[in-house]
Amino acid sequence: MSDRGLTHLDPLGRARMVDVTPKEATHRRAMARCKVFMKPETTGKVASNAMSKGDVLGAARIAGIQAAKRTADMIPLCHPLLVGAVTINFTLGDNHVEVETQVETVDRTGVEMEAMTACAIAALTIYDMCKSTDRSMVIGELALWEKTGGRSGHWRRPADDLSVPLVNTPMPTLDALDQDIDELIGPESRGEELS
After folding, report:
1. Where are the alpha helices (DSSP H) in the chain?
2. Is 0.90 topped by the overall pTM?
3. Is 128 a catalytic residue?
4. Is residue 13 one of the residues assigned to a domain?
5. pLDDT, mean of each 10-residue run, the chain (195 residues)
6. What residues make up the domain containing 129?
7. Catalytic-role residue among 3, 73, 128, 160
8. In angstroms, what CA-CA distances link 144 with 63, 87, 163, 177?
9. Looking at the domain assignment, is residue 157 inside a domain?
10. Count of structural domains, the chain
């Protein structure tokens, strides 16, 4: 907690929006990233624009831009901002699509939430556009990567600061689970008859 206490609570402990009116408007920028992990064949279909719903990345880009502009409608104590620019880029890996968003404004408060919301909604749109092909997709690693402007100045996440990436693995079959249990405790411990 900062030396200022809990900024979103009034003296009686009720939620409040922080008063930013005394602050000077400055140029602010934030960058966020996340990944949509998927089967390699799904990534291939995204890359070749072969999904039955249409242009996955085009739809995700528009959804992310819209989300950045509407962040204050979704995050209760987030200030409405005049978003000056939103950039959304995608990088395709073998088993994932990385989403990177950058949001800029000249305002009294930062655009970190706008960048992260844009990233999350773009990723959810990718999921929606691809779910008929791959329901095992996982969205993960949503994080703020950089912010500039404001009183706290420039901040950047170190390159290796995220935990080990999630792995999109299929659920084991019941037969495989039974075999694993037998190897751990033996079939006789489970009350099964040996033949």
Report:
1. 40-47, 56-69, 71-74, 112-130, 174-185
2. no
3. yes
4. no
5. 64 84 92 98 97 96 98 92 97 98 96 98 98 96 94 88 52 57 62 49
6. 26-151+169-190
7. 128
8. 19, 15, 14, 38
9. no
10. 1
